[in-house]
Design goal:
There is one protein chain. The chain has 139 residues and is mostly helical. Helices cover 66% and strands 6% of the residues. The protein starts with 5 loop residues before the first helix and ends with a helix.
Length: 139
């Protein structure tokens, strides 16, 4: 398995296949949070894996990834936690800016209890570090 840090994988995927395809790939509903065995081609033993990859990132992106990583196992990061922390930071900022909990509930689809937990438990210094990482990696 190729050893790379998650940040370099995120940057590499974005540079190779674009932001939206990389985000879809890193979603836990797809390949995020696990190792992925890139097939060497779209035929033979790798046909099913290639088809699953192409369904998520598109045919041309799947070809590009397989040319680059073909035959390798690569850990695909899960960005859900970073997005959740970014969301929580935004909730705290909006609340501190005067937005009512009820409005935050509607906007984010969360219960008032969960909003209050977020307001109580969000470490803004840690979230700011993650925010910089996500912004630098994705935007």
């Amino acid at each position: 398995m190729t050893q790379r840090d998650p940040e370099s994988i995120v940057k590499l995927l974005i540079s190779m296949i674009g932001e939206s395809a990389a985000i879809r790939m890193m979603d836990t509903k797809n390949f995020g949070g696990g190792s992925f065995d890139f097939p060497k081609s779209e035929t033979g033993l790798g046909a099913q894996t290639f088809a699953a990859l192409a369904e998520v990132v598109g045919m041309s992106n799947a070809h590009r990834l397989c040319r680059h990583f073909g035959g390798e196992r690569l850990y695909i990061p899960n960005l859900a936690n970073q997005y959740r922390q970014e969301r929580n930071k935004n909730i705290v900022k909006k609340y501190n800016g005067g937005t009512a909990v009820r409005e935050l509930m509607r906007e984010y689809g969360l219960s008032d209890r969960r909003i209050w937990e977020i307001l109580k438990n969000t470490d803004m210094s840690q979230v700011n570090q993650i925010s910089r990482y996500v912004q630098e990696s994705l935007f």
